[in-house]
Amino acid sequence: MIESHWNADxxxxxxxxxxxxxxxxxxxxNPIVSAHGFFVVNDLHNYLHVATGVxxxxxxxxxxxxxxxRVIAILYAIVAVVGFAFPDAEMLKGVQLNxxxxxxxxxxxxxxxxxxxxxxxxxxxxxxxx
Length: 130
What we know:
Number of helices: 5
Largest sheet: 2 strands, parallel
């Protein structure tokens, strides 16, 4: 359960930095996140990670971290469902992913949905505006 001192602004920034880092690492040859890594990605997939990170950071900077986390959580839930529903098709034209990516997207969707909707709204809005 999310504690009452949960801070949406901080979480949006942390998620943003994590997505930026994963996107950047994906552009380098490595065994975890790359064209031949455990999580198969290509440049377009990496750009989407970077864009997601930027969205998290912009949402936090504009004072709308709760809305940003909610929107991205819903988008990741859709991505996860589509990924499992069409496992042999590319998610979006040109975006490479494998089964590990699909499970990671599902896990991220669950975490983001819990963060976005589980804590009482008053606590999130109060802390987000600090």
